[in-house]
Design a protein that fits this description.
- The structure holds two protein chains of two kinds.
- Chain A is mainly α.
- Chain A is 71% helix and 0% strand.
- Chain A is globular.
- Chain B folds into two domains: 173 residues, Dihydroxyacetone kinase, domain 1 (Rossmann fold), CATH 3.40.50; 134 residues, Hypothetical Protein Tm841, Chain: A,domain 3.
- In chain B, helix 2 crosses helix 3 and helix 4 packs antiparallel against helix 5.
- Classes of the chains: A mainly alpha, B alpha/beta.
């Protein structure tokens, strides 16, 4: 019997991730300063603070409604590119799991796949453009492959996490095509993309929480 | 960080509230909405809105008023406003003849305004969009985000605002905006970084004797970091980059020397003196000049120079009266 991700689990994951983001302001702002305009950390931090603030409300919702609420909050509270990409992404994830109270592995993979598709479509971005897609896309690919192969869940979640972290790391050598890093002469080559880093932390946090759950 | 604020996360609301209190002809639509709109709506007129990140004051709330914008939607500092805010701006501006959105070419603004457009369609409000990309420091390209919108946007607001006030239709107002966009070019430089209130420290550093030519209004990288030079040399460098992109020879222009927030008017006038010398030598006639802090980057020290090529139609729009608090004609 595999894991079942509930809204309560998701809130627990949001809380952990919010703490991690809050504690790493200097690190993320430093990455952003090298390639962007320095607002990514402040925006993500504000967004996650707002999500944690409605944790009780989210916990009481089925997962599809919780994703929708998270999407609307991120869109309106974060603003900027991140706000609308995360907002649109969560709303797409909500549609992909319509009618579900909780998600098993296949359900979560569907939701994440819908999220990455929406983000790529809305942002006109593909893997390799030095964006958060470079963390999320390989993670979803790895997840799908693991499901296809009937892989053990713990091993699969560990591999999904690894794919996201490696993907974020790979942005160091990429040249930006989108966003403000694309204005630089070297288009940010040599620097990690802050959006990919925060995205990889989210995947890592979610996988870690699910790995703990499967160990229960 | 030393800033006159109460809470770094509330600077946008606090600022807009103050702006509206100081100017009775505009009103603040409230916390969470973050829109400045005209105190009185004109039914039957095409609505004109803009929006973008905060930190560029008096852009954009200061350009709301008769003859210019109907509403300005504010995002967090340097971040696009969200679609829900933009929808409120569209509703505040809609007088039944449609709404033109004039925005600057940043991916966040484009995505958020496009989504807002899709959403107001359900309310039966017709909208169109004009995207300003006047910054010649960046190569234009359809593959990348392309050229940024900066201070030249003000001329688009002025022209489109006048066209709307004169009773032109939505397609006509859009055409006036597009004509301005096609004829406006800007080139800037910066000498110090700025500090986002929620971050608390500068995002980059520049040496005591350094400046960056072509830096964006959010501190995005420019084209060249170099030793500071004289006003005369700077004027020549900035204008040359504009001339390389667009031929202004023999034309009549509106000129804007824009301060980025931390540069005294004294220096802006010194630069304007040199800009005027070069334009005169080149036989480019100056129809109207604007010197001051129109589109800032918080406390960043630096300037931009904008040229708008004029014809009789654009001159008439430029001369049309404006009651906007930060742009009175």
């Amino acid at each position: 019997m595999g894991f079942l991700l509930t809204s309560g689990d998701y809130v627990a994951y949001l809380e952990r991730t919010a703490r991690r983001i809050a504690e790493n302001g200097d690190y993320i702002s430093g990455l952003d300063a090298a390639t962007g305009d320095g607002d990514h950390w402040a925006n993500m931090n504000l967004g996650f603070e707002n999500l944690v603030a409605v944790g009780d409300e989210l916990r009481a919702m089925p997962i599809d409604a919780a994703f929708r609420k998270i999407g609307m909050l991120m869109m309106s509270k974060i603003g900027g590119s991140s706000g609308i990409l995360y907002g649109g992404g969560y709303m797409a994830a909500s549609k992909a799991c319509a009618g579900k109270a909780a998600l098993d592995a296949a359900g979560l993979c569907d939701a994440l796949e819908a999220m990455v598709k929406d983000m790529m479509n809305r942002g006109q971005a593909e893997p390799g453009m030095k964006t958060m897609i470079d963390a999320l896309y390989p993670a979803v690919q790895r997840f799908r492959q693991g499901l296809r192969d009937g892989e053990d869940e713990r091993a699969m979640l560990t591999a999904v996490k690894r794919a996201a972290l490696d993907g974020a790391e790979a942005t160091r050598d990429m040249a930006a095509v989108k966003g403000r890093a694309s204005y630089q002469t070297n288009r940010g080559v040599g620097h990690l993309d802050p959006g990919a880093v925060t995205k990889s932390w989210q995947i890592e946090g979610l996988c870690d929480l699910l790995i703990e759950k499967t160990g229960e | 960080m030393k800033k006159i604020i109460n809470n770094p996360n509330e600077v946008v609301s606090d600022m807009l509230r103050g702006m509206a209190k100081a100017n009775p002809k505009i009103r603040y639509l409230g916390e969470g909405v973050e829109v400045i709109a005209r105190a009185e709506k004109t039914p039957g007129k095409v609505g004109l809105i803009t929006g973008g990140g905060s930190g560029h004051e008096p852009s954009f709330g200061g350009y709301v008023g008769k003859g210019m914008l109907d509403a300005a939607v504010a995002g967090n500092v340097f971040s696009s406003p969200s679609p829900d805010r933009i929808i409120e701006g569209v509703k505040a501006a809609d007088g039944g003849a449609g709404v033109l959105m004039v925005i600057m070419n940043y991916s966040g603004d484009i995505m958020n305004f496009q989504m807002a457009r899709e959403m107001v369609e359900f309310d039966g409000i017709k909208t169109d969009i004009a995207v300003v990309k006047d910054d010649v420091a960046v190569e234009d390209s359809t593959w990348t985000t392309g050229r940024r919108g900066i201070a030249g946007t003000l001329f688009v607001h002025k022209v489109a605002g006048a066209a709307a006030e004169m009773g032109r239709s939505l397609p006509e107002v859009k055409a006036a905006a597009e004509k301005t966009i096609a004829n406006v070019r800007t080139m800037g430089m910066a000498m110090t970084p700025c500090i986002l209130p929620a971050v608390g420290k500068p995002g980059f550093t520049l040496g005591e004797d350094e400046c960056e030519i072509g830096m964006g209004i959010h501190g995005e990288p420019g084209i060249n970091r170099e030793k500071m030079s004289s006003a005369k040399e700077l004027a020549a460098k900035l204008l040359q980059k504009i001339f390389d992109d667009c031929d202004y020879a023999g034309s009549e222009v509106a000129v804007m020397v824009n301060g980025l927030g931390g540069t005294p008017l004294m220096e802006q006038y010194i630069l304007y003196d040199e800009v005027e010398n070069i334009l005169r030598e080149k036989g480019i006639r100056i129809y109207k000049a604007f010197v001051g802090n129109y589109m800032t980057s918080l406390e960043m020290a630096g300037v931009s120079v904008t040229l708008l090529k004029l014809d009789d139609e654009l001159k008439a729009y430029l001369d049309y009266p404006s009651e906007a608090p930060a742009f009175r004609v």
